[in-house]
Amino acid sequence: MSHKISSLEQYREVYQKSVQQPEAFWSSIAESFEWEKRWDNVLKWNFISPEVKWFSNGKLNITENCLDRHLVLDSDKTAIIWEPNGINEPTRKLSYKELAEEVNKFSNVLRDLGAEKGDRICLYMPMVPELTIAVLACARIGAIHSVVFAGFSAQSLGDRINDAGCKILITADGLFRGSKTVNLKAIADEALELTSVIKSVVVFKRTGEDVPMLPSRDYWWGDLMEDASIEAAPEIMDSEDPLFILYTSGSTGKPKGVVHSTAGYMIYAYYTFLNVFQYESEDIFWCTADVGWITGHTYIIYGPLLNGATTVMFEGVPNFPDAGRFWAIIDKLQVTKFYTAPTAIRSLMAAGTDFVNPYKLSSLKVIGSVGEPINEEAWHWYDEHIGKKRCPIVDTWWQTETGGIMIAPIAHVTPTKPTFATLPLPGVQPILVDSEGNELKENDVEGLLCMKFPWPGIIRTTYGDHERCRQNYFTTFPGLYFTGDGCRRDKDGYYRIIGRVDDVMNVSGHRLGTAEVENAIDEHKNVIESAVVGFPHEIKGQGIFAFVITESLIGDITQFENEIRDLVSKIISPIAKPDKIVVVPGLPKTRSGKIMRRILRKIAEGDTSNLGDITTLLDPGVVDEIIQLIQIKK
Ligand code: WTA
Fold this sequence. Notes:
Blueprint: H1 8-20, H2 22-30, E1 41-46, E2 51-56, E3 59-60, H3 62-74, E4 78-83, E5 92-95, H4 96-112, E6 120-123, H5 129-141, E7 144-147, H6 154-164, E8 168-172, E9 175-177, E10 180-182, H7 184-192, E11 200-204, E12 218-220, H8 221-226, E13 237-238, E14 242-248, E15 256-261, H9 263-276, E16 284-287, H10 294-306, E17 310-314, H11 325-333, E18 337-340, H12 342-351, E19 366-370, H13 376-386, E20 393-396, E21 430-433, E22 445-451, E23 461-462, H14 466-474, E24 481-489, E25 495-500, E26 504-507, E27 510-513, H15 514-521, E28 527-537, E29 541-550, H16 557-571, E30 580-583, H17 597-605, H18 621-633
Parallel strand pairs: 4-17, 6-7, 6-8, 7-14, 8-11, 11-12, 16-17, 16-18, 18-19, 19-20, 29-30
Antiparallel strand pairs: 1-2, 3-13, 4-5, 9-10, 14-15, 15-23, 21-22, 22-24, 24-25, 26-27, 28-29
Helix pairs in contact: 1-2, 3-4, 3-10, 4-5, 6-7, 9-10, 12-13
Bound molecules: 5'-O-[(S)-ethoxy(hydroxy)phosphoryl]adenosine.
The site of 5'-O-[(S)-ethoxy(hydroxy)phosphoryl]adenosine (WTA) has 23 residues, from helix 10, strand 20, strand 24 and strand 25.
């Protein structure tokens, strides 16, 4: 039975069923997978502990559904098309059969290194097919993968390795990103000095540069794979066994490890990919995200492979060798469905249509957007110049914690509206509440976006700290999952995501906590305290504005700013570097010592006309001083 929705009327029917009989709805989808043993119970849940269990006691391995299942009829079909960073290197293709063999070989390698079910394995890799192979090999042997984006610093990598207690690290000698080469192994080695939990390191050779290898800890990927068998029995997993951990920033403290389960995530990744993009078997699907983020997990690897699709993996960046690279690849590979982020669209829009015009883009059928609100101008540019007004834009709202797309148009089915993520997918029950938690039932309202019922892809816990999961998502409004996003529902019941209402910033589609960046800045020897807020940025969506109190006068301000930026790059990642830094005499604090970010946000936006009530501040005068300093700086 096809689970693909093909008309608006059918969407309404299916949606009704998914709300009225969620268990029947999701089990009819689960039926289409390979199970070693059927589940006993479809759903057990409460949003108080919280505890959510889908398909209890079902036994399966997700890689059988991603790979083995397709080998029967379609083993020669292309699973992965890999496009390298440089334009002179050839495209590489892996069929489902080849991918399955590589995954089995690497599963055997991991087992030989002592990896067992439940072990955590960290991946810090370039965007090469071996990253996908390693992810799937972990899943095949029941190890929990924790992919760390290869743009993170040694410190961030070390922290994540320690938090998850990873036993094995898989990395590469280096990576190519645009005109740059990054020596990944050197960063990995630095991270390894911060941890003692890693027993083995597997190094994939990508750049061919010389890297030190520590005997009996470091192994070359190629050497280990040489004699590995192409058969590897899948580990039988329980539905609720964790599949992966993915770190993401929250409003407090260090990034947390979002844990996803096996069966629920699988079903959700499959279903959302199939419907939102209206997958057809001849599709060439390209999601431009990095596998280091949730979008890459779900829509480069799991969603497409569960559907037996051909998925494109691109190693490079949108503006190398020039701003036409994406469009060149679409024509070259005849991409049919394309999924990218507003920040990329805005930067390519700024480069001008001269970079688009040489390309036909006639293979495209659906174009998507994810990761941040898409502004009206970018939406129309995307529609006109890339989709040529023929391709629906699917503006997909979701989060690392949701596992897959939650609110989005179904391509060719849901009428789109610029900047609106439109309607919830089947099984998704959003509600808007006011700050007291009262449900806003009508349309044409603005409120805080929550979910009142679990979907299969929901976060199960934050690794090693369930209380943090409860605190973060389930205590703001008891009985609801709180997303952290503000949202508008218009008169037609369409949802438009406004942005985060907590202390999480979204910089070029990357999630960063203000506290994380502040902690990094505070490491500078001359910094007493700092406060960081997001501000509107033409390309990045949000930029980072840092207000800094220093111990002594700053001599060379440019040098000081560079030191701060270097420090943040080193501690977190270059993506977290503040765009603007201003040294201030004090910060607007309440009498209880809490920084009033609302005021700093307004100042950073340049909107000082209406700062609201500042009389509760310990020292209201500081606000004027800050405003004046910023004006001088301009
Ligand atoms: C934001 C990315 C508006 C939102 C998949 C969310 C969006 C956060 C959209 C999650 C969208 C994501 N429109 N905002 N279509 N998609 N967001 O965990 O603020 O990296 O809470 O997951 O990105 O970011 P994350």
